[in-house]
């Protein structure tokens, strides 16, 4: 029984390490993936990829088989959460399912080493392990939304330049996508999806509204509403984009000023608890030592 227990532990640890290494180390050639995706291939050519890519395929295939045999389907809410965090690949649901299965097992393994109240700690670690993937996914989505929010003013400025130069909104979108591929990759992926939906035949305003629903960033929602009103009432798009860009810059400046004002209050705590005691020791320490020495001499 002990041998089986240690074998099970070894398998769990191996799968967990492989799961953690998948998104960071097992990335194939991007050029080959882009070419194969363009010609309609579902999977990139795995012959030229290293062993970690084959490990990724094995783990994800195992997770997919287990999920299929158990009859567990991925809910639309989970797919939306994965998309909000930037994971839209076909293997993203299997990866998330594998994380939800392996992290509770790893928690049970860690909790078994606590000598007192072992069963209680195993239960606690299993619960934390089950909650952790969802928490991590929510945090990743929040970080991605912040990156998109920070990159929006630059993208709008580029759109203003392109539209002012004579390009239409769709052509300006394609041009801006090629310029922000490296600096603002998150927003570039979202705008690429907007362009692909338009090529598939969806109306322009519907694709922009889908963008606002996916990202759920207030600035993006305002931007889409502005484009909708400009398209409905015939407002010049250049003037609308310029006004919106100025508003974004003004709001960003106001946010920085607000954070600067809050710093004056927040710095009180390190001053009181860290800096002032050190100053008191430096300034009053010699005087206290001298007074103590004088009192000692008087006592003698």
Automatic annotation (TrEMBL):
It comes from the Bacteria. GO terms for cellular component: plasma membrane. Keywords: Cell membrane, Membrane, Transmembrane, Transmembrane helix. The chain crosses the membrane at residues 6-25, 95-114, 120-138, 267-292. Residues 157-284 form the Type II secretion system protein GspF domain. InterPro entries: T2SS_GspF_dom. Pfam families: T2SSF (PF00482). It is a multi-pass membrane protein. It is found in: Cell membrane. PANTHER family: INTEGRAL MEMBRANE PROTEIN-RELATED, PILUS ASSEMBLE PROTEIN. This is Type II secretion system F family protein. It comes from Silvibacterium dinghuense. The lineage of its organism: Bacteria, Pseudomonadati, Acidobacteriota, Terriglobia, Terriglobales.
């Amino acid at each position: 029984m002990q041998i089986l227990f240690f074998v099970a532990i070894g398998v769990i640890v191996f799968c967990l390490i492989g799961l953690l290494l998948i998104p960071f180390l097992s990335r194939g050639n991007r050029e080959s993936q882009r070419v194969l995706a363009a010609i309609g291939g579902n999977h990139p050519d795995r012959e030229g990829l290293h062993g970690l890519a084959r490990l990724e395929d094995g783990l994800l295939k195992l997770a997919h088989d287990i999920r299929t045999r158990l009859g567990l389907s991925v809910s639309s809410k989970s797919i939306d959460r994965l998309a909000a965090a930037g994971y839209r690949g076909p293997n993203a649901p299997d990866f998330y399912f594998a994380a939800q299965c392996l992290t509770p097992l790893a928690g049970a393994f860690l909790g078994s080493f606590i000598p007192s109240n072992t069963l209680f700690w195993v239960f606690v670690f299993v619960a934390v392990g089950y909650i952790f993937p969802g928490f991590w996914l929510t945090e990743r989505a929040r970080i991605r939304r912040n990156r998109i929010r920070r990159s929006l003013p630059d993208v709008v400025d580029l759109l203003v330049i392109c539209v002012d130069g004579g390009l239409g909104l769709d052509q300006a979108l394609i041009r801006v996508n090629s310029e922000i591929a490296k600096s603002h990759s998150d927003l570039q992926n979202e705008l690429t999806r907007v362009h692909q939906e338009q090529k598939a035949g969806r109306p322009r305003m519907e694709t922009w509204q889908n963008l606002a629903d996916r990202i759920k960033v207030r600035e993006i929602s305002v931007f889409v509403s502005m484009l909708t009103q400009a398209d409905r009432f015939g407002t010049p798009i250049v003037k609308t984009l310029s006004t919106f860009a100025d508003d974004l810059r003004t709001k960003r400046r106001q946010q920085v000023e607000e954070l600067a004002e809050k710093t004056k209050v927040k710095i009180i705590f390190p001053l009181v608890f860290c800096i002032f005691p050190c100053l008191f020791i430096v300034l009053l320490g010699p005087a206290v030592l001298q007074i103590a020495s004088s009192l000692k001499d008087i006592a003698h």
